């Protein structure tokens, strides 16, 4: 009996020592092969595969011990798929907690006010870690894939910063941006002023895109919208250069010439009355609101001073004097 008691005591002591060693290990910083280590947990991965993956990525510990910790904790099946990054000082306990909480390392992509859809696609193509599902698709195929078949893509995505986990499809980012614009447009349309000439949310989006491209200073946005609102009301051509440039497309060399203004296209607002058929860029929230809440003004013209601000005029004579002062003397092109 003495032998058995001694053996039992020894086993208990060894168990306590092992438990103490495990407890100590769980709180010690993991050794890393680099200042930070990244690993993506894919859907369907087993705890053993996850442990092996972290070790292969640069966590310098036993994959067996790491796996046993995941299993022994009782939380192995709660690990969430995602992209994770750990740095110096991360313990095994913190590593598991990070994955259970889904505390991913996210990257971001930013869409800027006034960008065209071509620029959005270019930005997605160079976003790090974003799966390029849309790169081989046409614009029409992309819109169908995000649930908006038959919708022209221009101006339909809200300019903002979007976070994503490594390996996410770029179509998922586009879908979020599309839904964000739908929401922002609906919110703006609900605040439409009685004097606004836009008749539908789509028209508001088109006008907002023009206001976005035409406004150099944020405080002028309402007045710019007011000028275009007045022109729509009296049936006067909008005569806005950004729509002409958009209609020229990729062949535009940065220099707008007189023959461009005279060449008829669906987007030439010098040769065609009313709004162009689609937006010409992505408007931000302020431009959306300006389109539905334009300033009440008698101005029909405006010209850029060259410092980001504009001069607004009620008559053509006033406008011509402003053009002569701020544009012609510098040899600049058309004004509105």
- Mean pLDDT level: 88
Q: What percentage of amino acids are in beta strands?
A: 5-15%
Strand order of the largest sheet: 1-2
SSE string, helix = H, strand = E?
A: HEHHEHEHHEHHHHHHEEH
Which regions are unreliable across 5 or more consecutive residues at pLDDT < 50? 7-20
Query: Per the principal axes of the C-alpha atoms, what is the gross shape?
Result: elongated
Helix content: 40-55%
Number of structurally distinct domains? 3
GO molecular function: lytic endotransglycosylase activity
Pfam family, one: YceG
Protein name: Endolytic murein transglycosylase
Family: Belongs to the transglycosylase MltG family.
Explain the overall architecture.
This protein is mostly helical and 336 residues long. The protein has three domains: 16-101, Endolytic murein transglycosylase (Dna Ligase, domain 1, 2-Layer Sandwich); 106-186, no CATH class; 193-330, no CATH class. Helices cover 46% and strands 9% of the residues. It has 13 helices and six strands. The strands form three sheets. The chain has a two-stranded antiparallel sheet. The chain has a two-stranded antiparallel ribbon with strand order 3-4. Strand 5 (301-304) and strand 6 (310-313) form a beta hairpin. Helix 8 packs across helix 9 (221-234) and helix 8 crosses helix 12 (285-292). The longest helix has 25 residues, at 2-26. It starts with a helix and ends in a 10-residue tail after the last helix.
């Amino acid at each position: 009996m003495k032998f058995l008691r001694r053996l039992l005591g020894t086993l208990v002591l060894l168990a306590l020592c092992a438990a103490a060693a495990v407890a100590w290990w769980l709180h010690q910083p993991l050794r890393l092969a680099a200042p930070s280590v990244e690993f993506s947990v894919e859907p369907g991965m087993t705890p053993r595969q996850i442990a092996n993956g972290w070790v292969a990525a640069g966590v310098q510990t036993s994959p067996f011990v790491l796996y046993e910790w995941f299993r022994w904790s009782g939380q192995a099946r709660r690990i969430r798929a995602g992209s994770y990054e750990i740095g110096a000082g991360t313990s095994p306990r913190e590593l598991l907690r990070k994955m259970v909480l889904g505390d991913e390392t996210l990257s971001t992509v930013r869409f800027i006010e006034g960008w065209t859809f071509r620029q959005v696609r270019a930005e997605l193509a160079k976003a790090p870690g974003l799966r390029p599902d849309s790169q081989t698709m046409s614009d029409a195929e992309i819109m169908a894939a995000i649930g908006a078949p038959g919708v022209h893509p221009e101006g339909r995505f809200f300019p903002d910063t979007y976070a994503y986990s490594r390996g996410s499809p770029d179509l998922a980012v586009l879908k979020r941006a599309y839904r964000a614009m739908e929401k922002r447009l609906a919110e703006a349309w609900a605040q439409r002023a009685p004097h606004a000439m836009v008749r539908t949310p789509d028209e508001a989006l088109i006008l907002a895109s023009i206001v976005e491209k035409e406004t150099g200073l944020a405080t002028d946005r309402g007045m710019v919208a007011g000028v275009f609102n007045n022109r729509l009301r009296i049936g006067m051509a909008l005569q806005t250069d950004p729509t002409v440039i958009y209609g020229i497309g990729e062949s535009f060399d940065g220099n707008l010439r007189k023959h461009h203004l005279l060449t008829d296209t669906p987007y030439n607002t010098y040769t065609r009355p009313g709004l162009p058929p689609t937006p010409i860029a992505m408007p931000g929230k302020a431009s959306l609101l300006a389109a539905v809440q334009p300033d009440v003004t008698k101005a029909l013209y405006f010209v850029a001073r060259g410092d980001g601000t504009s001069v607004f005029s009620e008559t053509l004579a006033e406008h011509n004097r402003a053009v002569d002062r701020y544009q012609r003397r510098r040899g600049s092109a058309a004004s509105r």
